[in-house]
Amino acid sequence: MVKGVNFVDLRDAGDPVELAAAYDAAGADELTFLDVTASSAGRGTMLDVVRRTAESVFIPLTVGGGVRSVDDVDVLLRAGADKVGVNTAAIARPELISEIAQRFGNQVLVLSLDVRRAAGQPSGWEVTTHGGRRSAGLDAIEWARTVAALGAGEILLNSMDADGTKAGFDLDLIAAVRAVVDIPVIASGGAGKVSHFAPAVASGADAVLAASVFHFGDLTIGEVKESLREAGNPVR
Amino acid sequence: MPNVVVLDYGSGNLRSAERAVARTGADVTVTSDLALAAEADGLVVPGVGAYAACMAGIDEIQAGPMIAARVAAGRPVLGICVGMQILFDSGVEHGVETKGLGLLPGVVSKLAARRIPHMGWNTVDVADGSVLLDGLAPDARFYFVHSYGASDLDVLKEAGAKVTTASHDEPFAAVVEHGALSAAQFHPEKSADAGYGLLRNWVAGL
């Protein structure tokens, strides 16, 4: 069982390095930085945050946002990231996935997938970009199958429908992706209560990720892990 | 305090290993300088990515003979993840067999498991007399991220190694202790306090 903590907006969440250390101390199993802006000005700041975080935490650190090339991955790994999240660039050029996997091994590559329901796609789900605002014109379940075949090590599955609702994870989406891939799936989007996490795991998620509920103190990592343990899941 | 070299041969995230070993109080240097690596009280061989790529990196700086000489002379070496795997006779990835350093017997091959990579926190079954895991809680969890492993446990045990196993559908070697040679398939540098305990035990023996 792995549980991540997601940093989606560094500006509002306080000092990310201090937060990372606090989450490490609170028992988080992994940390994820997703710099959704990924502007060129933000890149240098991001690298500095990664460096300082890697110096103070001793749990795995995934960093994503604006990764467009094998060289971008190299820079992040050298700054102290253990895994790198890739999203839009792989949609534009799927070969990027195999290039990264060949150079650094597939365990380094977390393919980030922003999905919403769409009647127009065969599976009923489509891939989105720009934080869920634009359709990529791809069937999300078919894309999950493709990225696993190309060498992604893990899928960070974010439900854009559930994101921000605090109404629970999109269990149907988790089950649909689980059915077509053998690589680990991290469920993200929709966590609002302690009771939301175990059903995501039961639906096929290998890990569950939450951001705002931890940032704003709605839930503690300890109580979420306890509820997962009570549901019969192995928990650190 | 003992001094430790983390060998830089172009593989992965060396900073984490450096920081985690430094946390034990050891003086840590990250370098590809073979003379420094040969003389250090302890040598850490990290490794991330493909077996063949890691061996190519080792060959490029010609570190193989130095590592073998250290082990022969009883000078501690700790391999981590693929840095453990390359200590074995060979590794098979995508049907291609790559020769390893041959300091541990057996072949590293793809895990026979439903979910690959094996990624996450797992418990281990501690070998009798393990020094590295001495004093750690029996249910301590370590962070694994790998698709390949050393599963030929009998060959290792027959060679006299202490083998701590983990299981991901099938058992594989999680920690091997054989004379001066130590190796962990998981990432102690990413395994929070449990990993710190292992590194502290290793550094205490330098």
TrEMBL record, chain A:
GO terms for biological process: L-histidine biosynthetic process. The active site is at 114. Pfam families: His_biosynth (PF00977). IGPS catalyzes the conversion of PRFAR and glutamine to IGP, AICAR and glutamate. The HisF subunit catalyzes the cyclization activity that produces IGP and AICAR from PRFAR using the ammonia provided by the HisH subunit. One of its GO terms (cellular component) is cytoplasm. It is found in: Cytoplasm. Heterodimer of HisH and HisF. Its main location: cytoplasm. Transmembrane segments: none annotated. SUPFAM superfamilies: Ribulose-phoshate binding barrel. Belongs to the HisA/HisF family. Keywords: Amino-acid biosynthesis, Cytoplasm, Histidine biosynthesis, Lyase. This is Imidazole glycerol phosphate synthase subunit HisF. PANTHER family: IMIDAZOLE GLYCEROL PHOSPHATE SYNTHASE HISHF, IMIDAZOLE GLYCEROL PHOSPHATE SYNTHASE SUBUNIT HISF/H IGP SYNTHASE SUBUNIT HISF/H. NCBIfam families: hisF (TIGR00735). It is an enzyme of class 4 (lyase). Signal peptide: none annotated. The lineage of its organism: Bacteria, Bacillati, Actinomycetota, Actinomycetes, Micromonosporales.
TrEMBL record, chain B:
Its EC number is 4.3.2.10, 3.5.1.2. It is found in: Cytoplasm. It comes from the Bacteria. It catalyses: 5-[(5-phospho-1-deoxy-D-ribulos-1-ylimino)methylamino]-1-(5-phospho-beta-D-ribosyl)imidazole-4-carboxamide + L-glutamine = D-erythro-1-(imidazol-4-yl)glycerol 3-phosphate + 5-amino-1-(5-phospho-beta-D-ribosyl)imidazole-4-carboxamide + L-glutamate + H(+); L-glutamine + H2O = L-glutamate + NH4(+). Keywords: Amino-acid biosynthesis, Cytoplasm, Glutamine amidotransferase, Histidine biosynthesis, Hydrolase, Lyase, Transferase. SUPFAM superfamilies: Class I glutamine amidotransferase-like (SSF52317). InterPro entries: Class_I_gatase-like, GATASE, Imidazole-glycPsynth_HisH. HAMAP family: HisH. This is Imidazole glycerol phosphate synthase subunit HisH. It comes from Paractinoplanes atraurantiacus. The lineage of its organism: Bacteria, Bacillati, Actinomycetota, Actinomycetes, Micromonosporales.
